[in-house]
Amino acid sequence: MIKAINIKDKLELIDELWTPKVIAELNGQQVKLAKIQGEFVWHDHKEEDELFYVLKGKLVMEFRDRKVDVNEGELIVVPKGEEHRPVTKEEVWILLFEPKTTKHTGEVKSDLTVDTPEEI
Amino acid sequence: MIKAINIKDKLELIDELWTPKVIAELNGQQVKLAKIQGEFVWHDHKEEDELFYVLKGKLVMEFRDRKVDVNEGELIVVPKGEEHRPVTKEEVWILLFEPKTTKHTGEVKSDLTVDTPEEI
């Protein structure tokens, strides 16, 4: 069924950090929401570019040779093969856009790894 | 170069209605911004699903058999092959996510058709 999806309503359903939830799918890509805080694991995605759009708070995207601030209302595209690690001081809410095949920790297995993100 | 893209700053660069501008690209998909007002042309995309995310205002997505309100902060995915027409009363700002190959008027040629959207 075709319907409007309310981002704020969906965010209210998320109570775990670092656990992306799928809210929409199109053309083999997924739109996900996540709440994050602290330091994620270093990883890359060999075949997939990944988009982070900051809905609330401020994210620092760390690369091996530099850091990029991504403030509320900004987005960043991390190209495939580029090692990265999202870091935040406070809780940050993000929208992700990436292929359905993308694992959020790449090939790195961590306590944070979620193999198949839940749909909400 | 990897950098943060500020949505509000990009929106300020847009002064024409119904003229999507490309702000990012990944995995063969593009992120576009557009300002729209009034009634668009009826069209579909044979092979491409299309995502509309309303940043400001209220959009009504008309289908042949129903209408769906898409309010500020909401998104809708229009499946491929589904005839649709965005309609707004006032000026509405949207973010689009769709394959690079998607033409905003589908196969319909109209005065509004933009063959190759500009990057901003």
TrEMBL record, chains A, B:
Residues 37-89 form the Cupin type-2 domain. InterPro entries: Cupin_2 (IPR013096), PKS_Associated_Protein (IPR052044), RmlC-like_jellyroll (IPR014710), RmlC_Cupin_sf (IPR011051). It comes from the Bacteria. SUPFAM superfamilies: RmlC-like cupins. This is Cupin_2 superfamily protein. It comes from Psychroflexus torquis (strain ATCC 700755 / CIP 106069 / ACAM 623).
